[in-house]
Amino acid sequence: MAGFVDSTVKDIDARLSELRVEVSKLEAARSALVGGTRTSARNADAGGASTSTRRRASRGPGRPRGRRGGHTRAAQALELVQNQPGITIPQIAEAMSIEPNYLYRVLPKLVNDGKVQRDGQGWVPVK
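The structure corresponding to this sequence follows.
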């Protein structure tokens, strides 16, 4: 019986090791697509406090959660478009040192805000 348990534990450990490698690859792919990293629930709870009892960081009044004040990616992209009319998404991404896929979400929002518009393959500020 001890041999069976040892063998089963060894198989489980091997599988867990394979899964850790797979998780690492998936997290790297996700990070490349959306930028940033994702923390797991296990890492978030490592401090011992439950989700309901953990203190939340205070935000200023009227400041939405998840938004930073100051120089956001959208503001950086808008500044590049204003300084270099006709700039393309890959050029903006290179200048900002980020992946271009992020900008395919940011620039349409700037279009909806009436700040930029498409001009062929590039982007120009709305006058």
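Residues 48-54 have pLDDT under 50 and may be disordered.
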